[in-house]
Amino acid sequence: MGHSIIDLIGNTPLVESRVLNQNPNVRLFFKMEGHNPGGSVKDRAALNMIQSGLERGDIDKTSKLIEATSGNTGIALAMIAGIYGLDIELVMPENSTKERVQTMRAYGAKVTLTPADIGIEGARDYAEEKVANHGYIMLNQFGNDDNWKAHYKGTGPEIWRDTEGKVTHFVSSMGTTGTIMGTSTFLKEKNPNIQIVGVQPEDDAKIPGIRKWPEEYLPRIFDRSKVDQIIEVTEEAAIEMAKRLAKEEGVFSGMSSGGATAAALELAKTLDKGVIVSIICDRGDRYLSSDLFE
Questions:
Q1: Cβ(31)–Cβ(159) below 8 Å
Q2: Tryptophan synthase beta chain-like PALP domain location, by residue (predicted)?
Q3: Active-site option among 40, 253, 256, 278
């Protein structure tokens, strides 16, 4: 009795691939982050950034919070800010799916849409201006250590526990890079031989939630030495795999999860044996107004 919605964040299930993984000597597990109450892996970072900020006194009930987001982080922040009675403004490109905008507003956040042609970088610039000149506070998922520490405290230990320490490879799409940084830090402490594989789009591919950042926008929390290998995926492969995940494995997720799965399957083909854990970062119903599942 007496659980709050916050207590449901984390401890997401691991589900084994029954169809897509064709290598009998490799086990591939999906870490089902869509099972978080806000529907994505970002619940973890949002909770840790807000809770830790409140504990340190960096923010309080009078703070005006602002964050640029392409979607899932915004939803998670809206949910958790609402629970804590905090004011938050979320800034994102106007071509974000309408489910995302509506969900953030449902949780009580103010949503500001910036022009699509300046992308998430433009949304970040808008938020920075508000911080510089209008007394706003940015949680800054791209530079906030509480982002990756959420995964050091949660995602990493859960994977270690649920694979009974047998995990050999961890695969994650890279956006803010919080998931891969925190999980890598924890798993490498347990066993330095675990291979950490980052997934990013090929140069011209557009995959929501994952980026190949230009140098000046590279997340401050990113440390290249914590990633053993980077696999690049095409937009087509990510879309195709998101569809196959839903149809063949019953795993309904977005494009970045499709990209990560495509990379995990490429990896699986090259291994003699192993236990791969790949992040499924959100749920597919976030994308129904887009053409992903047309």
A1: yes
A2: 7-282
A3: 256
